[in-house]
Design brief:
Elements (H helix, E strand, L loop, with lengths): L3 H6 L1 H10 L6 H31 L6 H33 L19 E6 L12 H8 L2 E2 H7 L6 E2 L2 H18 L4 E3 L4 E2 L1 H7 L10 E2 L6 E2 L3 H7 L5 E2 L4 E10 L18 E11 L4 H19 L3 E5 L11 E9 L4 E12 L1 H5 L3 E4 L2 E3 L2 E9 L1 H9 L7 E2 L13 E2 L5
Parallel strand pairs: 4-9, 8-14
Antiparallel strand pairs: 1-11, 2-3, 5-7, 6-7, 9-10, 10-16, 11-12, 12-13, 13-16, 14-15, 17-18
């Protein structure tokens, strides 16, 4: 959340920021609400002060009755103004919650077409046979079962099986081994979280349509462990920075609005497994940790020798909480293009302000910055499958992943 003082003092900057992000908000109304809140708060304090003075005077012999009546009237007026103040504060918070983060100056302005490719790494593989999609490979190798996932649940669900599960374990272990050396703490949080937790992350109110809400409960399935890792520290004062977390969880999203996109395979689904890097750091160190998390993401693609590119996302392709974001897109031979497999966002103090998460270290205090970056998600499995497919329908295991696969060097077609 933005600081209301910053909004008022930099109103034109905030208006221009909303324009760049294609967000339509009445900023003048927000300022008006803030002014009304200020005036009401001032008047409430005056009434309280006068009421307290009158209360101290009660007890005299001649005018006690008049003072009691006056005290009752002041109490009633205070209650009425306090109610107005509460309503204005609630409305102001609601309006402020829709304000997006301030963009980093490096972010290009526009939609997805304005994304900038920072670099490309690796050689796109050439095949002398018909390239299969991960869906076709998964079915023939018995490692992805979409029909039965749909049967037991509904569309956009699947069962990961046999060596497919082993690939998930192996890839997560490879990532964990790398970041544990940097001091990342492993966390397996609850998959259900309160509305306030989702609000802190900036997931709500913006992504309400993607939220799997539990009926008659103040609980929802998390869309990413980032939400839980933020909820852990709501209303706390941190005395140590940085805090480095690696959350592991299933993630749940309704994907409303994505119908017609990626209908085949398991690229876009309602449930998937993910490792999430979440860093709390001093504001002076947020750029460093943003780049470090990006290096951690690139590490995996480099170790696996999967072609990829790093993309700086444009203003309208950036989630409202983000200030600047890099996506890593891996090469998918069956689609003949790069597709996103990880994302990495510097969120500055937007989330910590929403969650009242502060730091106080060596006499300095403030709101820490947060970095949220994918470590691993199931899309990496299918990128590996497609890039390492062989002419006989098997999948070769990348050399550096073999030790994590118990020495398995290939996934072979199942005998019929």
């Amino acid at each position: 959340m933005l600081d209301i003082k910053y909004v008022i003092e930099n109103l034109e900057i905030v208006k221009e920021n909303c324009k760049k992000r294609n967000v339509n908000l009445d900023l003048d109304y927000i300022v008006d609400l803030s002014n009304r809140r200020r005036d009401l708060l001032y008047n409430v304090e005056l009434l309280r002060k006068e009421k307290n003075e009158v209360s101290r005077m009660i007890g005299g012999e001649k005018i006690e009755k008049d003072l009691i009546e006056r005290a009752k009237r002041l109490k009633q007026e205070e209650q009425e103004l306090s109610k107005q103040l509460e309503e204005v504060e609630k409305k102001l918070l609601e309006e402020m919650s829709w304000l997006p983060n301030i963009l980093d100056p490096r972010v290009p302005v526009g939609g997805e077409e304005k994304n900038i490719v920072i670099k490309e790494v690796g050689q796109v593989p050439q095949f002398d046979f018909r390239v299969k999609s991960h869906e076709e490979l998964g079915s023939s190798l018995g490692i992805i079962d979409i029909p039965r996932g749909v049967k037991l649940s509904k569309t956009r669900f699947y069962c990961l099986k046999n060596e497919g599960v082993m690939l998930r374990w192996a890839l997560t272990k490879m990532f964990v081994d790398n970041v544990k050396k940097q001091g990342f703490e492993l966390v397996s949080p609850p998959y259900l979280a309160k509305k306030k937790t989702l609000y802190i992350s900036g997931y709500l109110p913006f992504a309400e349509k993607d939220n799997f809400k539990i009926e008659d409960e103040d609980l929802s399935l998390i869309g990413t462990s980032e939400q839980s890792l933020l909820g852990m520290h709501m209303d706390e004062i941190l005395t140590k920075l940085p805090l480095l977390y690696l959350g592991e969880s299933m993630c749940f999203r309704t994907e409303i609005g994505s119908y017609g996109k990626d209908n085949t395979g398991i690229f876009r689904v309602h449930q998937f497994y993910k490792l999430e890097q979440l860093v709390y750091c001093h504001p002076d160190e947020s750029e460093f940790w943003h780049q470090q998390c990006l290096e951690n993401e690139e590490y995996m693609l480099k170790e696996l020798n999967i072609p990829y590119r790093v993309v700086l996302t444009a203003s309208q392709d950036l989630a409202p909480a983000g200030s600047i974001k890099y996506d890593i897109e891996a090469w998918f031979p069956s689609q003949n293009k790069y597709r996103e497999v990880t994302s990495n966002t510097n969120i500055r103090d937007y989330q910590t302000r929403r969650g009242n998460i502060r730091f106080k270290i060596d006499g300095t205090k403030g709101f820490p910055h947060t970095i949220s970056a994918t470590g691993f998600c199931d899309r990496l499995i299918i990128a590996l499958m497609e890039n390492y497919q062989q002419a006989d329908g098997s999948i070769k295991i990348p050399e550096k992943l073999v030790p994590y696969m118990d020495g398995l060097t290939a996934i072979l077609p199942k005998e019929v």
